[in-house]
Amino acid sequence: MNIGLIFAGGTGSRMNSKDKPKQFLEVHGKPIIVHTIDLFEKTKEIDAIVVVILSDYLDYMTELVKNFNLKKVKAIVPGGETGQLSIFNGLEAAEKISHHKDDVVLIHDGVRPLINSKVIQDNIECVKENGSAITTAPAKETIVLVNGSQEVSEVVDRTRSFTAKAPQSFQLADILKVERDAISKGITNAIDSSTLMGMYNKTLHIVEGPYENIKITTPDDFYMFKALCDAREIGQIYGV
User: Fold this and answer.
1) PROSITE patterns of this UniProt entry (predicted)?
2) CB neighbours of residue 120 within 10 Å
């Protein structure tokens, strides 16, 4: 069984949106999170979807799932105090749906709608073969490391540099075991799932995804997503 875990428990303070959290901002008549979920919904390898959302928006999310006919969504649960705890809530919900210890969970940001079915499929295959899959994109520019004085301490070889994105995918039983142990030790604010698994010396394998697989965090990100949607719609209309 392959389960998509879509989490969007943040308020999006950098978006300057006073009316609603960023995941509910609409583009072409659909909230961003619905664009994201719909990609998993339409990927045949995905069997079920768990959505983690702000507790105040549980009813609204339930309404969106119904209105947009997202039939693979099997659970909608509230987020936690941190991103890690929000993901943990989703993992526990996924465990209740899971049928087998080797089931795969794909952890994905609700505000990262510019992936495609191939990325999802590649994640699933990589987890089945290697136990993990971290979606990445090759670095386009040179990355440097700096010291406390803001001086360059190292120039990283660009041919070996990638930016970590999402989905980040694992065997459900494996990441749940790590999450539970980490939380029992007071570790509750890992920056992402790959970082947490790395802290436990888990081998992490990568799959390459598209450069445009951005996380919509700022107004610039939002307008970039809107522009890409506009371009795709024009292409469909005019066949370009």
Assistant:
1) ISPD (PS01295)
2) 27
